[in-house]
Model the fold of this input.
Amino acid sequence: MAAAAAAAKKKLVVCGGNGFLGEPTWSAVTASPDPPPWSQTVSWQKADALKPSTYHPLLKGADAVVHSTGILLEADYKGVLQGKESVISGLQRAFSPTKSGSQNPLTRRPGEDLQSQERDGQLTYELMNRDTAITLAQEAARQSVPTFVYISASAGAPILPGRYISTKREAESTIVSSLPQLRSIFIRPGFLYDNSRSWTLPIAAMGALGATANAFTGGRLTWLIGAGGTKPLKADLVSEAVVEALEDASVRGPVEVNQIEELASRAWRRGML
Done:
């Protein structure tokens, strides 16, 4: 988790600040040709997304909070590799239509940790992609933080359980309905890639072909290939869009791929002036 503040009394907190998208977000803020004054001071703090008490004090006085913590795959394969579970059982569990998250994050007591309700304490989509986001938004609202950004996704994918995207949509809808005092922004990119993670490049190349084919058919392949039919985006481009969205008070709600590119382009143009 990272936080930035300065004499201008503005503060941005990123949960997952050293992750795939969180780290480029800080790069976008601090390396901008025209960075805001508050970007000159960055403080890295260790916190646990499942333990609100570890980050609650960091939210005090924040102008915005970004949730970029989440999982792409659940760890069902570990039991299979350790011989504790059969391959068939592991696959059935991985693609189960329902799994447990934590206790209801909206009714938990102040300072209460999130507890996985799965029998083995598994980190599920419900827990990591949904409940940690709702909890962080709730804690931000309690500290009167005006803006909350959730890194969501444009769609699921054939190789991922449907719960990957459904839990993200559940997080979005719950935050909007239960915490209306927040200016909530839901960034919905497709597949993210970066040169620093070479394994993402061939996947992005295939995704670009899928996006081209989907566009050629007028989007008729979206139901079949999900995010595979959405243009892949470079991680730092999405980060620049996040920073631009924070600066534009009119941005709220879902931000789809086209708008992400528009926001990033606007940031680039301003930097060239």
Summary: The beta strands are 2-5, 11-15, 42-44, 64-67, 147-151, 183-187, 192-193, 233-234, 253-255. The first helix runs from residue 22 to 30.
